[in-house]
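Work Package 4 report. The design task specified in the project plan requires that, given a folded chain encoded as structure tokens, an amino acid be chosen for each position. We show below one input record used in the internal validation round.
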């Protein structure tokens, strides 16, 4: 079936610093792309890496050094604040399952919950339930009961666990090998005709593919 509107599905994991940077930049660009449907789909990056026998950049000292310097340069050019955390990597299963639950039950607040600076600005360990609770507190007006319910779902709800695994398996099946990955589908394209764009530096190509405006990295902070 042909798509009536263009769409972008972003597979992400909060452990990825390029996901953090990509999310911040993408949300600036997409303001000029109102006719493109956008979905942020949680996945477990470690699960993807294990399945396809890939290794993350931080597994290699030279690549890790380059990654940190590269992210600092992107931050300076775009104005997106960034601080590499001292504790890296961490286990993101819990926060990613919480986001899976929020996508289902708090759709209007879901993206706000992704757009947090706890890890890559404040260096706080988001694998811990109390840190997650503190991060979500302003969004839920300090409704600790509701926040605790989502933490509980993430730990005990088999449907949420199953959904999160399905998203990860789906990402692998679609050829995802890292984060962030954007699957771009043009208006009128048939199912399965998505184009895969990997990383936080492919927005110009994505915009050209969809025929939408692109202001460039040096202009993005003004959007």
């Amino acid at each position: 079936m042909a798509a009536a509107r263009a769409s972008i599905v972003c597979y992400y994991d909060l452990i990825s610093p390029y996901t953090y940077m990509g999310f911040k930049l993408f949300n600036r660009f997409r303001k000029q792309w109102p006719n493109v449907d956008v979905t942020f789909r949680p996945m477990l990056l470690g699960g993807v890496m294990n399945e396809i026998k890939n290794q993350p950049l931080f597994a290699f000292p030279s690549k890790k050094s380059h990654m940190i310097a590269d992210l600092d340069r992107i931050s300076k050019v775009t104005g997106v604040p960034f601080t590499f955390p001292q504790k890296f990597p961490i286990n993101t299963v819990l926060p990613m399952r919480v986001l899976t639950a929020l996508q289902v039950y708090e759709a209007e607040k879901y993206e706000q919950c992704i757009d947090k600076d706890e890890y890559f600005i404040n260096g706080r360990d988001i694998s811990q339930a109390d840190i997650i609770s503190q991060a979500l507190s302003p969004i839920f007006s300090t409704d600790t009961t509701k926040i605790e319910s989502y933490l509980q779902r993430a730990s005990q709800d088999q449907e949420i666990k199953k959904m999160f695994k399905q998203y990860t398996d789906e990402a692998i099946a679609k050829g995802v090998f890292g984060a962030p990955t954007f699957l771009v589908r043009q208006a009128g394209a048939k199912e399965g005709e998505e184009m895969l764009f990997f990383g936080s530096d492919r927005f110009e190509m994505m915009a050209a593919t969809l025929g939408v405006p692109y202001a460039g990295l040096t202009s993005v902070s003004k959007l």
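DSSP finds nine helices and four strands in the chain. Validation will be extended to a larger panel in the next phase.
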